[in-house]
């Protein structure tokens, strides 16, 4: 019997007012700005106002800078661990930059994995966009290594394929989708998603295939680098090809989807180029690992939205040649590409709705079985979350050694991935359509990025105390100290990983970036919690389990503190400047909303193509016609 729809979360108790001492400490300009911004807070559909992300104070800023330094200390020269490309085949900005990599948890024996490269590119991309010159230099060195990983160890462009050129560049060859695209314009090296681990000899039979979570992070980082460079044509070309390959190889564009009763196409992110998601169980495209398997921790809505916006805002007719044909052999379009990203966002939030608890705990692995009558088919009518978290009525799956249906290391990344969406796109992240098990709109269900993040913050508020003491904070997520609701219908099993490891605890800090939708707590109260949580590690002494300087620990520590420190700016990187020609439509940036919504109506034009920026007009109640 399929699990019932997710139960509504219980209302949290109203938080007490901040103490006078706490308020006295909150005197920085940043904190005052956050408090002032709180006057704009509104519901998910509350007029022009959108909830404003909360930014931590001086303690949080210092913690982020400390973890940024720890993380950067792990970068090393590539020295042949990944394929290296000549200057002539990389964008001009990368020429002369020494390739850098980050080694995974096993050190040299563990090699270089795209997960770590993705995290590094993500962090450096954000910092480069914020004006950090070292970040730009690091980012370009890392991006150069990424392109080498796409190219592969030999003369053949491998991307996320099985070692042959056709498997990487032809959509109709196994594995389904295009994972690398050769440049047709500038003579640059192939661009796309990368083989997940190097040297490839570290895997029995050779490492093959991509990892969807890592690909999304790396490409988002490269989008920020491109913006920091002010969109040079060669860099745009490289990133645009990577965006298309992600949509095809990791999301299944153009033909791997399910159709809901209202006609919406749902693209379920695969685990990688050759497994998971809605790949069939039979035929030439069958999943290489457990069929119908999906990890909520891989869901990256901000990355999908940003890739979509990048494609729309930088598209030109010559890029049409990069798009893969559909199963009928017909040329696909930019509009169809954007539908894939939209469908992935909607599908991901619905799957998370059915695979998480009121505490914010989510499952490592869940089922998304929506099998077609033709077991070899790529697309058909179906509802991916019909039986989530199970595969069918009672099946289970796992793909990484972490437990099915339990809150653990794989799921630990869910909070910060959702926090990225809220931090960058609050107008969009609070407007999510939830469907029932049959795929019909559930008008009564309210679930979005803010809802999910509030669950985590409310879990701390009801069970813990905002004091920099692990014994006072752990009751929120440590069952042995009284944590509640870490299992539920969406997370049926107890997890093995626990809050006392930085890999699990730090991502939960991101829950406080979203203001309380119920109004039960104010920004100053959230900042008090942030101070307490980052205070678990004394950054002057750097001792203890919450000062984890390992690869796995420091990756979560730097990303979580980056988000709550406000390094992730609302609206994302600035869009490219409009062409000088008077007839060219202006591009609208999310960063201008909601503060300048009224002036945008008078001063800016809608984009000819629907980007996330342009689509804000109808959602804000503005005219669908050109603004004047």
Give structural attributes:
disordered N terminus; two-stranded antiparallel sheet; 628 residues; three-stranded mixed β-sheet; disordered C terminus; mainly alpha
Structure characterization notes:
- The protein is built from 19 helices and eleven strands.
- With 628 residues, it is mostly helical.
- A hairpin with a 5-residue loop joins strand 7 and strand 8 (265-266).
- The longest helix has 20 residues, at 334-353.
Question: What string, H for helix and E for strand, traces the elements in order?
Answer: HHHEEEHHHEEEHHEEEHHEEHHHHHHHHH
Query: What is the tally of helical segments?
Result: 19
Main sheet record: 3 strands, mixed
Strand numbers in spatial order across the main sheet: 8-7-11
Helix content: 25-40%
Chart the SSEs and their pairings.
Elements (H helix, E strand, L loop, with lengths): L19 H6 L3 H9 L20 H15 L2 E3 L22 E3 L9 E2 H16 L3 H19 L13 H5 L10 E2 L9 E2 L4 E2 L13 H17 L4 H18 L6 E3 L5 E2 L26 E2 L6 H14 L19 H20 L12 E2 L11 E3 L32 H11 L1 H4 L19 H15 L6 H4 L28 H8 L13 H12 L16 H14 L32 H7 L8 H8 L9
Parallel strand pairs: 7-11
Antiparallel strand pairs: 1-2, 3-6, 4-5, 7-8, 9-10
Helix pairs in contact: 3-17, 4-5, 4-7, 4-17, 5-7, 7-8, 7-9, 8-9, 9-10, 9-11, 11-13, 15-17
């Amino acid at each position: 019997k399929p699990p019932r729809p997710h139960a509504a979360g219980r209302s949290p108790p109203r938080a007490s007012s901040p103490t006078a001492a706490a308020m006295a400490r909150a005197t920085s300009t940043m904190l005052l700005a956050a408090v002032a911004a709180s006057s704009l807070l509104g519901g998910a559909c509350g007029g022009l106002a959108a909830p404003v992300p909360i930014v931590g104070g001086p303690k949080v800023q210092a913690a982020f800078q400390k973890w940024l330094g720890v993380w950067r200390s792990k970068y090393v020269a590539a020295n042949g661990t990944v394929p290296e490309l000549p200057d002539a085949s990389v964008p001009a900005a990368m020429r002369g930059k020494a390739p850098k990599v980050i080694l995974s948890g096993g050190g040299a024996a563990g090699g270089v994995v795209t997960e770590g490269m993705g995290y590094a590119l993500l962090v450096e991309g954000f910092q480069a966009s914020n004006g950090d010159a070292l970040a730009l230099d690091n980012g370009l060195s890392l991006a150069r290594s990424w392109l080498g990983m796409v190219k592969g160890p030999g003369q053949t462009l491998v991307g996320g394929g099985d070692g042959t050129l056709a498997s990487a560049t032809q959509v109709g060859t196994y594995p389904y989708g295009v994972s690398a695209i050769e440049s047709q314009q500038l003579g640059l090296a192939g661009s796309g998603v990368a083989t997940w681990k190097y040297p490839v000899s570290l895997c029995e039979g050779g490492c093959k295939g991509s990892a969807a979570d890592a690909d999304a992070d790396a490409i988002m980082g490269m989008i920020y680098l491109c913006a920091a460079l002010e969109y040079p044509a060669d860099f745009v070309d490289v990133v645009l090809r990577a965006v298309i390959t992600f949509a095809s190889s990791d999301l299944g564009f153009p033909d791997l989807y399910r159709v809901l009763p209202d006609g919406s196409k749902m693209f379920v992110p695969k685990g990688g180029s050759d497994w998971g998601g809605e790949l069939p169980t039979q035929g030439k495209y069958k999943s290489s690992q457990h069929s119908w398997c999906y990890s909520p921790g891989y869901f990256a809505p901000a990355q999908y939205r940003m890739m979509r916006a990048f494609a729309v805002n930088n598209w030109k007719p010559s890029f049409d040649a990069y798009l893969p044909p559909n199963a009928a052999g017909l040329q696909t379009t930019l509009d169809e590409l954007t539908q894939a990203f939209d469908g992935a966002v909607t599908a991901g939030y619905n799957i998370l709705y059915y695979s998480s608890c009121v505490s914010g705990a989510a499952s490592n692995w869940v089922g998304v079985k929506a099998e077609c009558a033709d077991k070899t088919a790529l697309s058909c009518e179906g509802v991916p979350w019909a039986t989530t978290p199970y595969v069918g009525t009672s099946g289970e799956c796992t793909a990484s050694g972490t437990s099915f249906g339990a809150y653990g290391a794989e799921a630990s990344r869910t909070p910060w991935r959702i926090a990225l969406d809220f931090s960058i796109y609050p107008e969009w992240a609070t407007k999510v359509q939830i469907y029932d098990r049959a795929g019909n709109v559930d008008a009564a269900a309210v679930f979005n990025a803010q809802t999910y993040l509030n669950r985590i913050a409310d879990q701390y508020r009801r069970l813990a105390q905002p004091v920099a003491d692990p014994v006072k904070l752990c009751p929120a997520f440590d069952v042995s100290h009284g944590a509640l609701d870490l299992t539920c219908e969406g997370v049926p099993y107890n997890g093995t990983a626990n809050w006392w490891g930085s890999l699990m605890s730090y991502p939960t800090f991101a829950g406080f970036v979203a203001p309380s939708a119920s109004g039960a707590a104010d920004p100053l109260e959230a900042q008090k919690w942030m101070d307490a949580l980052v205070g678990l590690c004394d950054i002057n002494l750097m001792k203890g389990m919450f000062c984890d300087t390992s690869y796995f620990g420091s990756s979560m520590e730097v990303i979580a503190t980056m988000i709550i420190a406000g390094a992730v700016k609302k609206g994302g990187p600035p869009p490219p400047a409009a062409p000088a020609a008077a007839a060219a439509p202006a591009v609208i940036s999310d960063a201008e909303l909601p503060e300048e919504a009224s002036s945008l109506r008078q001063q800016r034009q809608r984009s000819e193509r629907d980007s996330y920026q342009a689509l804000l007009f109808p959602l804000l109640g503005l005219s669908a016609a050109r603004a004047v």
